[in-house]
Amino acid sequence: DSRVFGIAMRDTRPELAQELANKLAAEYIDQNVKYKIDTTKDAAHWVGSKVDEARLALARAETALHEYKRDNNILSVSLEDKQNETSRDMEKFSVSLTDAKAKRIDLQVRRKAIANLMENDALAAPSTYVAVSPSIDAARRNYLGEKSKLAELDERYGPKHPEVIYQRSRLESAMSELRTEATGMERSMDAEIKALLDAESRYGAELEALKAQGFALNEKELKYRQLSRDAENAQKVYAELLGRFNDSGLQSQDQGNNIEPLDSAELPTSPVEPNLRNALVFSLFVGLLLGFATTA
Fold first, then answer.
1. Checking CA distances to 159, which of 73, 136, 251, 266 falls within 20 to 30 Å?
2. How far apart are CA 206 and CA 121, in angstroms?
3. Rounded distance between C-alpha atoms, residue 203 and residue 200, angstroms
4. How far is CA 153 from the centre of its chain?
5. What is the DSSP secondary structure assignment for residue 2, as one 8-state letter?
6. pTM, entire model
7. Over 60: is that where the pLDDT of 123 sits?
8. How far apart are CA 153 and CA 146, in angstroms?
């Protein structure tokens, strides 16, 4: 949109009227430029103060982020690397804990089978549970063999026959040998079960510690992300204000104006007042009105 306006000056001296009109136009244009420059300088001063505030805010945000990274040892190892390492350790200890529990349960089952041997029931324990110990397996086989012989002799000669009595003593001796081997095996299993329980306790404690460490790392990550966002936002605000400040500095140096004179005032060739023609026409009109009024 454009607007055009004119300036008119009246004076008995035409040269002065021309000069005043041109000077008024020039003064108006200069005043408009000055107003534009002053306004731009005020804006630049305000933006400059905001730039200083943004610079301080950015320094505080960057310092807080650096100190947090330093205090939490994030300078050399990233939080993501620490979290991945903790996850790998948790998986490793979880597998170890599961393996230890499985071995302990298997040992407890086999120990129960050995306990059956102690209770004078050699057939109650599956051979696969006692085959892991060659000495127990041999003693068990010997006991079963002696027991089978005793059954044959007892059926053939009766319970009071000397050979039956001797065979019964051999069976008791085989049972005693089996108990001795079973007792040793039972003690060995008890020690191994105790060691596995201790390992389970240690694995479980380490797993809980790693879980706590994982939660702590998650909390640190949340705080780290917050500080990182604060630093990034402060950097963006500072960059934007600095750009505006630079632009306002350039605008303050701009002497351009949106007002331009179309024409300069010209020296009039005739006076605008008095206008004789208009005065004669007006006098004639008034005279006619008075004439009509008099005749009436």
1. 136
2. 42
3. 5
4. 84
5. -
6. 0.48
7. no
8. 11
